[in-house]
Design brief:
Number of domains of chain A: 2
Oligomer: heterodimer
Strand content of chain A: under 5%
CATH topology of the largest domain in chain A: Rna Polymerase Sigma Factor, Chain: A
Distance between the termini of chain B: 22 Å
Order of helices and strands of chain A: HHHHHHHHH
Distance between the termini of chain A: 47 Å
Helix content of chain A: 55-70%
Shape of chain B: elongated
Shape of chain A: globular
CATH class of the largest domain in chain A: Mainly Alpha
Structural class of chain B: mainly alpha
Strand content of chain B: under 5%
Structural class of chain A: mainly alpha
Radius of gyration of chain B: 20 Å
Radius of gyration of chain A: 18 Å
Number of strands of chain B: 0
Largest sheet of chain B: none
């Protein structure tokens, strides 16, 4: 199998999972995120060989960004370009903050094919603890996330438990995850 | 938190997403922005007194056509730049073509005019006000489009801001057409263009700050 056709298969596979995830198929969406994390890790590790400690933080930040912005994927376009666009954006953002562009060993080329041609499934622990950040969210955002996404309860059940309306629970999850991403950004701004 | 735990968290209880988020946000932003811009125009500078006469002249429609074509190109660019990984290879041609056409028409008009009349074709009677009024009328749309982009995921922020500014500038110019007494191509090809470039510059400078996510 040539490298190119391997890339096509990966693209089709990832895209299929995401498309099902976008209409609410949680297991397919889980498969998508899992496979995406493997490619993201390889992508970041290759470009951050001087900053290996940042790789897993950036993988998690990108996964959260992809989740929060998943509605912006245009189903008519290649998934790779969308995913790579987000990964590159988060990477450039990090490098700009650290101002270590000159330490890069690999240029930021637009080589989408190489993005999918390698994988790195060795999931490490991130330095940043998203669990601790989650604890800092206000109750109206934290409880819907804890009940629906960590304990796996339904929206209706969560609404009963928290006394919120069902739509407030859905909004709470959505805004809470966005607030989590905003807290990561604020944390990064405070870094020297 | 381990990455696998984060993935489990994100995937658990995932809800179907909103469809056509880009189109919806842009429709809202442009609809409200244009309405506000129209009210601003009517409340300050007012309609062209001889609008009924102006719309019977082809030169009016050349002007409207130029502005509308730029607006269309800027709209497609802005919508694409609102998503990660945009493809933009067609963009220079789509935006260059209307400018080239108006400049050719302007050159023809200037070549056909008596030497003493050429300055009048370029400057008209309102060249000093035109770019600033277009920039002013573009403001409501600029605010709207930047809001629309902030809720999406632009990854090339300066370019996205520029496209937002150009779209706002072109739509502001479209509203300004209902007030403006000038119809000559040399005027439109210089001062209208300048008026559209002012909000583009504002967008280019503010994009990297306002559109971060």
């Amino acid at each position: 199998m040539t490298e190119q056709s391997g890339v096509d298969v990966t693209e089709e596979c990832l895209r299929g999972w995401l498309l099902r995830g976008l209409v609410g198929d949680a297991p397919a969406y889980h498969d998508f995120l899992k496979a995406a994390s493997v490619h993201l890790r390889a992508y970041f590790r290759r470009r951050l060989s001087r900053l290996p400690d940042d790789v897993e933080d950036l993988v998690q930040e990108t996964l959260l960004a992809m989740h929060n912005q998943r509605q912006t994927y245009d189903v008519g376009l290649p998934l790779t370009a969308w995913m790579y666009g987000i990964a590159r954006y988060k990477l450039v953002d990090l490098l700009r903050r650290r101002a270590v562009r000159e330490l890069l060993t690999d240029p930021l080329d637009d080589d989408d094919a190489r993005f999918l041609s390698s994988a790195d499934s060795e999931a490490a622990e991130a330095r940043r603890d998203l669990g601790k950040l989650l604890d800092r969210l206000p109750e109206r955002h934290r409880l819907p996330i804890v009940h629906t996404k960590i304990e796996g309860r339904s929206v209706a059940e969560t609404a009963r438990l928290t006394g919120q309306s069902e739509s407030a629970v859905k909004v709470g999850v959505h805004r809470g995850l966005k607030a989590l991403a905003a807290m990561i950004r604020a944390e990064q701004r405070d870094e020297p | 938190m381990k990455t696998d735990d984060l993935i489990a968290l994100l995937a658990t209880g995932t809800a179907p997403v909103e469809r056509h988020p880009v189109g919806r946000r842009y429709a809202l932003a442009i609809g409200l922005g244009l309405a506000a811009s129209g009210v601003l125009m009517l409340g300050t500078i007012g309609l062209l007194p001889d609008l009924a006469g102006a719309v019977r002249r082809p030169s009016f429609w050349v002007k409207v056509g130029f502005v509308a074509t730029v607006a269309w190109g800027a709209l497609v660019a802005a919508m694409r730049l609102s998503r990660p990984g945009p493809s933009l290879t067609w963009l220079p041609a789509a935006l260059g073509a209307p400018v080239l056409v108006i400049w050719v028409l302007a050159a023809a008009a200037l070549a056909g005019a008596a030497p003493g009349a050429r300055a009048g074709l370029v400057l008209g009677t309102s060249w000093w006000a035109c770019p600033w009024l277009i920039a002013l009328l573009s403001l409501p749309v600029l605010v709207g489009v930047l809001w629309a982009m902030r809720g999406l995921a632009p990854t090339r922020l300066a370019l996205a801001g520029t496209a937002a500014g150009l779209l706002a500038g072109a739509l502001g110019a479209l509203v300004y057409c209902l007030h403006c007494p000038e119809q000559a191509a040399p005027f439109v090809g210089s001062w209208y263009l300048l008026g559209m470039l002012i909000p583009s510059l504002v967008g280019a400078l503010s994009g990297p700050v306002l559109l971060r996510w």
